[in-house]
Amino acid sequence: MLWTRSQSTPPPDGIRTIPCSGLDLGAVDMILTTGLIIDSRLDAEKLEKSLVTLIEQKFPRAGARIALRNGAYEFQIPEKFGPNAPCVNFTVEDHPEAYRADPLRPTLPMDLKVPSPTLPSLSKVPYAVNQYLRSSSCPQSIEAVIESKKPMLYVHVSLFDDLTFIGVTASHIGFDAVGTSTLLGAWARLINGTDIDAIEGMPWDVQPFASLSGPTQVTKQRGWFDLGILSKMVFIAYFVWRLFWDPNEYGAFVRLPKSFLAEEKRKIMEELKNEGSNEWVGSSDVLTAWWYKTALGYRFNDCTSFHLHIPVNLREKPVFAGQSTLKTPYTNNAAANIAIPPLPVKAWHEKSLSSLALHVRRAILAHNANPEGLRNDIRWRCANPLQMHFPCSPGGEYSFQTNWRMAAFGGLDFSGAMVGEGVKRARVVFVFPMVTSGKHYPMRGSGSVLMEDDEAISLSSTAGISGPNLVGTWNSWTWP
Question: Over the stretch 369-382, which tens digit does the pLDDT of each residue have?
Fold first, then answer.
């Protein structure tokens, strides 16, 4: 924890407090929205009542406020929720017509005609959709969240006759992607008739990283850089130079058919077999290698060191007390980054897809084979919750590729809240991410694998477009 000299301010009356862990504060400035587009009109009243019931009885931490008290961030949970102490900010906008009835509304990603159902396609992010996922009262920064003294969770529902938009917004202090899916998965079960007593909840006072907190001799996280003054100046100067020459950011959604991905994986596995190798790659390795080979392939003479970070879900790792996995649902942050050994940018052009996929896979296997190293990473972060380390070397470039695939947002079923009778399910047809920050951090280099359905995997990426940027090939793509 980061304490000031004064530690005298007590918590408010009727409030239980839990300190934020160092992992909660890794993205302290980010406000994250998980937007779900559902292919049916839902009953907003049923959505709200069921979510309130779920939070009050099973996930009280999700109804917490975020506070900065005595110099430390903490969750403040009302001992009793009610009209004067709500557990969620729930807002609704009703549009009594079909979404597609107005041609001026932004075209949705799942409505675009792709050039080929068996080949990857790319489309621009329709940022105007954000208006259906956040209300005007939703805070845009952590400072606004704290100042409001309201629940950290905001849920905005936009109803149309043919679609429902559900935007689930919270400070990244409170949720990671798997944590959000834990709450939404339980919500969907309750909506669809599961008895509340049969749903496993999250104890309000659970602190799974407490055993890894305290003083540590670890000096940094693996794959991160603790830069001196001169190196920091070089890092910042290079970063500002890139922004000066390429000030605009663009977002894209990429649709990757599963048939395409499976064929690429089959060819790699066949190549390895023919070489007499016992190594293997997973579909996520192939996806990562394909994306960066595509995105960086035009920079075939660029020797810039490129540092790729991909997520790991700590809940399933033996890093908790007793070297066990996490046994209880947990909605707060429980994620760390695997730092893939850096390559020069041009290597993503020169190397084969199979060698790049193996490069990713080997890094993941090495990471998983060293649980003590992972525990040390967590110890450092818990001991240094707000200390800034750098994701790449000075003069290098970095990219974070978050994998929401494990969160399984595309599998959520809201059929129990459908308006009217019918035989079809209320399916999530697209997951729409949105991130804001009061610091206005550039988002270039960021991206997420958003969801998968029966036919394809969808991912997003943000980059510049005219200078030394992540996705320089966008200009040459055919945009649907």
Answer: 999 999 999 999 99
